[in-house]
């Protein structure tokens, strides 16, 4: 039996209310993730804590500007900001261009310059799924001995490191790196469902320490180095991450440049050929 106009209108109102509630739950999830109370977020956004509470419970419909303001104060990624806008009943505002789009060419050229300039040390660029977009010649040091199927595009950077046929057998401190990478991925997967299958896959890889652990650093620890075996030597690296801080495109905002530097003089001399 076909619903009448009154029933259809009621269903539309109920659906809109459900969407508003979903937008509020997403905002509340990000607020908690960032460690803000409702009052702290309200002060930042120059609204009342009561209004924040009404938005989070779906009792109040936030304006487009309010969604963007709250998302900005919570440093929500561009992809999620689009999802928040959709849930609140508004059109997305952040485009998502493919990497081969002409508008992305200046970005890719800037990335290539960074990678070339980092020689003779390894560097790579990954996207929001941790797929490798580009790398420099020195990155070949990391892929030596890796199974061919792991190097077929798209090459996933996390799979490359943790797979038993990837870099894992050559990483002397694979337990530490596994813990660090899985913890980072778990945080992202909790907020981005696209990454959940990857997390489950990597969690299932065999390792001497199968479950991620949270350990306190020692008195002399300032970082977790990457200890990579290369032939008869062990090279030590520290890693830095860089992003495009003013990106308004989803694809661009998710690009991460990971650069590896020598953690000791021995590694520096080995990589420079001296």
TrEMBL record:
Top-rank taxon: Bacteria
Domain HTH cro/C1-type intervals: 27-81
GO molecular function list: DNA binding
PANTHER family: BLL4672 PROTEIN-RELATED (PTHR35010), BLL5781 PROTEIN (PTHR35010:SF4)
UniProt-listed Pfam families: HTH_3 (PF01381), MLTR_LBD (PF17765)
Name of the protein: Putative transcriptional regulator
């Amino acid at each position: 039996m076909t619903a009448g106009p009154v029933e259809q209108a009621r269903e539309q109102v109920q659906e809109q209310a459900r969407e508003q509630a979903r937008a509020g739950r997403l905002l509340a999830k990000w607020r908690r993730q960032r460690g803000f109370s409702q009052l702290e977020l309200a002060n930042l956004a120059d609204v009342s804590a009561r209004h924040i509470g009404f938005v989070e419970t779906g009792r109040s419909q936030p304006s487009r500007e309010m969604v963007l303001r709250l998302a900005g104060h919570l440093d929500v990624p561009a992809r999620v900001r689009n999802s928040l806008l959709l849930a609140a009943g508004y059109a997305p505002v952040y485009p998502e261009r493919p990497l081969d789009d002409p508008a992305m060419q200046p970005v890719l050229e800037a990335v290539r310059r960074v990678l070339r300039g980092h020689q003779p040390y390894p560097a790579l660029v990954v996207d929001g799924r941790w797929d490798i977009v580009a790398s420099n010649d020195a990155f070949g040091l990391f892929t030596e001995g890796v199974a061919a199927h792991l190097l077929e595009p798209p090459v996933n950077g996390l799979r490359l490191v943790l797979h038993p046929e990837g870099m894992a057998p050559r990483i002397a401190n694979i337990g530490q790196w596994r813990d660090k990478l899985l913890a980072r991925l778990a945080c992202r997967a909790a907020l981005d469902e696209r990454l959940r299958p990857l997390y489950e896959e990597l969690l299932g890889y065999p390792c001497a320490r199968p479950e991620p652990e949270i350990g306190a650093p020692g008195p002399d620890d300032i970082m977790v180095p990457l200890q990579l075996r290369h032939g008869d030597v062990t090279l030590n690296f520290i890693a830095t991450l860089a992003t495009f801080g003013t990106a308004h495109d989803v694809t661009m905002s998710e690009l991460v440049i990971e650069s590896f530097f020598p953690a000791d003089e021995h590694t520096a001399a080995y990589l420079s050929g001296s």
